[in-house]
Write a structure and sequence with these properties.
single chain, about 280 residues, mainly alpha, two-stranded antiparallel ribbon, 11 helices, about 0% strand
Length: about 280
């Protein structure tokens, strides 16, 4: 029986390992194709020049700068509000119907299609608030889109922290805020940072929300303030893939590679910060 049991466990282990490898295979193939086709298109001129000749030549510098501005704006808008809301729901709010309603609303908001956020951003920020199509309107729209994931990740990470840590800190004379800031948040930081990374990465590659709030078809200059419109890599890739006839494929491959590289770069930066937090905790 012990031999059969050992063989059975080995079969299950190999089956799970195979499923795991198959699940990441599409990602590896897609990334491999993007690198294989995109790298030959990359040059200093491609990265440092604006589009020319109806966007069939030149580079993607305005789209790179616009995407970086928009991603940083999204981080500023979503991360503080998301973390503080999660802290409030777990550490300070009472367990009543109001908190349950808020939690249910946040979960439902996470499943709303991104184009709905884009239409909301256009109606509220662009038109009603008078911001126009601008980096601030796009950042606020993407920030709101990211909030449900960051709040949920923060809430679940805080709930996973042992109550003994809270009790020990309070027993030593720490206040509620000191316990939350110096004990609970550091212990929950890996899960919170994971939620932030996933959410910001999704926002960096979104096209639908920024079509209505910030993205320009073509701009011959770089944005100078948060009130300016901007080109972005996801929308630029959409435009040159669908709206510009006779577009050289190398331009599309190069733009796609730069977009993925920036997204992966943000992920790696987040992973580095998370690893550093883990070592310090």
């Amino acid at each position: 029986m012990s031999i059969l049991k050992g063989k059975g466990e080995k079969i299950i282990e190999n089956f799970i390992k195979t499923i795991g490898l198959l699940s990441i295979l599409p990602v590896v193939l897609i990334l491999g194709y993007i690198v294989f086709t995109g790298v030959p298109a990359i040059s200093w001129e491609f990265l440092s020049q604006a589009p020319k000749n109806g966007m069939r030549a030149g580079g993607v510098l305005p789209a790179i700068i616009g995407s970086i501005y928009l991603t940083l704006g999204t981080i500023v808008v979503s991360v503080p509000f998301g973390i503080l809301t999660g802290v409030y729901l777990v550490e300070y709010s009472k367990d009543n119907w109001i908190r349950r309603t808020i939690n249910l609303t946040i979960v439902n908001l996470a499943g709303i299609p991104s184009i709905i956020y884009g239409l909301f951003g256009m109606a509220f920020f662009v038109i009603y608030m008078g911001m126009g199509a601008s980096i601030i309107a796009g950042s606020l729209t993407l920030g709101i889109m990211c909030l449900p994931v960051i709040i949920t990740a923060t809430r679940e990470s805080l709930l996973a922290v042992s109550s003994h840590l809270r009790e020990a800190s309070l027993a030593l004379g720490a206040t509620k805020w000191e316990t939350t800031w110096k004990v609970i948040l550091p212990a929950a930081s890996p899960g919170i940072l994971t939620g932030i990374i996933l959410s910001i990465s999704r926002a960096a590659g979104e096209t639908a929300p920024i079509m209505f709030t910030v993205a320009a078809f073509y701009l011959p200059f770089l944005p100078e303030s948060i009130w300016d419109q901007a080109m972005t890599l996801p929308y630029h890739l959409y435009v040159i893939s669908t709206q510009v006839p006779n577009m050289p494929k190398t331009n599309m491959d190069g733009t796609l590679f730069v977009l993925v590289a920036i997204t992966v770069g943000f992920n790696m930066l987040g992973a580095y910060v998370r690893t550093k937090f883990n070592k310090e905790v």
